[in-house]
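User: For documentation purposes, I need each entry recorded in a consistent format: the amino acid sequence on its own, followed directly by the corresponding structure tokens. There are two entries in this batch. Please keep commentary to a minimum and don't merge the entries.

Assistant: Recorded as requested. Entry 1:
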Amino acid sequence: MSNNQQPYQPIFILPEDTKRTTGKDAQRNNIAAAKAVAQTVRTTLGPKGMDKMIVDSMGDVIVTNDGVTILREMQIEHPAAKMVVEIAKTQEEVIGDGTTTAVVLAGELLKKAEELLDQNIHPTVLTKGYRIAEGEAQRILRSIGQRVGSDKKDIFRQIALTAMTGKGAEANKEVLSDLIVQAVLRVVDEKDGVCIVHKDDIKVEKKVGEGTDKSVLIEGIVLDKERVHPMMPERVEGAKVALLDAALEIKNTEIDAKIQITDPMQLQSFLDQEEKTLLEMVRKVKQSGARVLFCQRGVDDLAQHFLAKEGILATRRVKKSDMEKLARATGGKIVSSWKELNASDLGFAGVVRQEKIAEEEMLFVEQCLNPKAVTLLVCGGTEHVAEEIKRAVVDAIGDLSTVLREGFVVAGAGAAEMEVAQGLRRFMVTLSGREQLAVEAYAEAMEVIPRTLAENAGLDPLDVLVKLRAAHDKGQKWAGINVFTGEVMDAWEAGVLEPLKIKTQALSSATEVAEMILRIDDVIMGGSAKGMPRQTPGMGMEGM
């Protein structure tokens, strides 16, 4: 180098405390994080899955084997791991079940991809191969899905039983599955031959201190509320119900107004006028014929007194979502002004009663005529048991509403995944080029579900996979693993059934996230705000 040349100066384009990981290091880091998330929930899969105990910073304990609950409560920080957690959240929102399946699949797709990356196969070739494989896998799934009508109660029951097997509700799954099927069929709406079920129309409330077999379906709504005045009746039969989205109190003026009173009598007449207005409000409710009032806003103390004198049971500050459920259950209309309330707006409930459940007063609005919103009251011996049973019931409700909406069912127990894996192996031969390797990796990744089911049951996964492959090669498309005996069974005959949508949704979201993570070759962690600790790509994994 000649003397007049300046030495090379590095150019900094990012702030000083930015952390950057590039190339293979970035890929390895991200894949390791995603695999760690999948590993966390993997042991919860299947009838023999184990539970996790999560203790948060406040000391609250959650015992569960519901994938999305575990991942949500763990407060994962790693950016790539967060992307995998999003799969579980999406699966939960769209269907309500199959969250563990989706996450485990994503983890396995990335694990297989890592092996191919080590063989110097480019990530874009991999992602293209994965996309081709996913398209074929979806086609295979759609071809094996069985159509089910809304009259197949026995199949719905099997789906509910399958959803609850291996969860806290398993001991009483027979009782619960019957209740769930009744609840879902009660709230289903048919429009132009298409069944529509809003999961929100089935309210799941828990009751602590009773055995799970004491769970009941209430043809109406249970509210975590009590009557506003002790003189009101505790029980009203054949109740006409008013739903009011307006306050039964004197409004303060919107603008600052001064009222100058020069004479004490003026003050008295001012107060009298207020009382008169409140009395008029209560009279209007009474004239409509209502004997029960649900108010979404406040009820003045004096109005409470007048309502009690008239023998009207009232409660206030009811949530908007609960008001909508009450409207669907009782057939009433939500009225936004007390002046407009009349007999045609009222709903009907056979009984409205107040009952104390585990130290809390609750209002039961039951025996409604043809309710389109119902409540499942699930019981559990302790808070943690009741909470976990509630989660299992919500999963089963999600499955049933999906089947009614989509109309297609497949067998579980690893049968659908094995059928897809074998189909992909046959399809792979038709491809040329390196994508063939990606499709083969995808087929192997599909087998992670039966393998995990076997591992969690204490069986030899290799033996199980060999038996399953042999059965599927003979054309037994519903051959699945019986985790209790270790033998191959016809999963459809055994009643292990799941909605097709669980599988198709899990496949598409797992593949998309795997592709996205594989395409990242540079992770730039922004500099931390002053006084805030910065999270680096390696952090957030220690606890996992």
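Entry 2:
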Amino acid sequence: MYGKFPALFSPMKVGKLILKNRIISAPMSAHCLTADGHLTAESIEPYELLAMGGAAVITVGETLVHSQTGNNHGSVPRLDSEGGLRGLYRCSDMIHRYGALASIELLHPGRRADPKYNAEGRAYGPSVGYCHYGDGQHEVTELTESMIDVIVNAYGDAAERAMMAGFDMVMVHAGHGWLLNQFLSPATNQRADRFGGSLENRARISLMAADNIRQKCGRDFVIDFRVSGDDFMEEGATRAEVIEFAKLLARKVDMIHVSAANFNNRRAGIRMFPSTFLPRGCNAFLAEEIKKNVSVPVVAVGGFNDPAHMEEYIAEGRVDAVAMARALIADPFLPEKALMGREDDITHCVRCNNCLSVGYVPYVKYNLGVSHCSVNPWHGLASEYLRHRRPPAIRQRVLVAGGGPAGLQAALGASDRGACVIICEKSGGLGGIPLAAGIPNFKRDIRRFAETLARRVERRGVEIRLNTKVTPKLVREIAPDILIVAIGAKPVELPIPGMDDRRVVQAVSLHTSEKPADGLVVVIGGGLVGMEEAVALAKDGRCVTVIEMTDRIAPDATYLHYLALLAEAEKTPSLKVELNTRCIAVNEDGVVCRDGDGREITYPADLIISAAGMEARRDEAEQFLGSAPRVVMAGDCLGAGQMCEAVLDGYFAGYNAQRL
């Protein structure tokens, strides 16, 4: 009845609601708000797109219940203002059009507020201490019992406004180190009154909030609570305590959504938004334990992106539903594709965390307010996707030179606009560098992405010519209306004596070259690529030394991926990083370096990996200028970058090449 994934697409009852399947869009923040924190048409369109994609519940994330005492970074939706009801109603309407249910996350940041946005410039929490939000360390003012009552009532009022605006349920955020979790966690709650000490006391404010919502919204309005199944930090709420907390909640709420970790730990994001080094569904075991102890539905979240994997968890009764955020950014139509038997066309999230890192204040200096996805060029462009796509007036011929990510995306973009497309690749297969780069286990989703693009191009009817290097002569023979040059970048050749040694391998060729099965490894360059390869080799048991001339590893990594990479390096004893150290030669003894104090050191090596970066093939690309009526350059041949830039640049080079 439900195709390949009968459990995943079976209906689920939550309170009085019926979810059409077991896929939930985890809370994602709204952007492009008014100055008063109200939703605009541009804010709503991403949620409409998610609903169109087939998820059962669409959740508007991070919505403030009491902005006077709890505003974390200014540009956040607010439910303590009636002026926002119009936008909220419009949002729930758009979600309902596609048969999805509308949910909204209720949040008070407590000590994670930025004081400059709060009344009187203060941050409030369960106990005194310091918060690290905003521009530095700030004192925390302990909430009085009367203030706690105000905030509890604010949760109920916020839920009532959401209900009036057509939302089917609310998700109360009681995890991740926000206010309700701060009360639950002994690390941030040292109170001696009825809100501190015992677990029942620390849970009291959450139960009061649930009661207040029930009182104002009625028995049939669905209440979902989001908890961290384990704070994973010293003196935090433990797994056993959260299970007992969940038992208390289950008497008052309709569903429990189980995440993990606590922002009071500065590295919480590694597990909260599971890094590429953690297995898919790494936090689901927390949901499984809670499900054994409660009778209400339990939702798991944490790096899921494969329908077969989700089907297994639900069919075995380990959890009741699965929530995703990044996976639905990568492909909003993941649920619909899985339902229709097109799961091999899903664009899988590669967990680069680019989407999150650009706004990950206070750890990044500026909140850009917009993000890109490394595998979905339409991310952040919901309005254009929903409203403005149109076929061209005439069908033009497009020739794409290069079968890497930028070239494949260019072919798909041009095909989406109705062009007749030919793609030429000088090697024997499509996919480019990601096929090899994705060989390490923690990067396999990158390889899968390249394979998906290649398969998608074939299904679009694009003419594929392998083992064909594009030259100006070939362009003139094919005579396209548009030529898209996507020939990529090449490794930087270090001007160092001895780099022609047989032990030296370029990082981009590492997995396609013969290399010794064991022995010492030296990696020249501690950027993103060098560190990822070093970690992969060290995890395989090799002794690896990374030589980095600056004072920091992986400055080109997104912030959250940098944290994960740093953590992996620190816990891998066979990996050593030498900062402020420059390679000056390669000789028979190994890699000769000069450290920050001017001392010369030789590191023995059986394998030497050059990871000094990439440089654009500009000269090669520019030879095509004038060879077709329109010549467009895309991807790394313009300037070497990361896959995100190549995907975005390549797709729209094809999509926008034809204007009429």
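Summary note for entry 2:
The chain has 22 helices and 28 strands.
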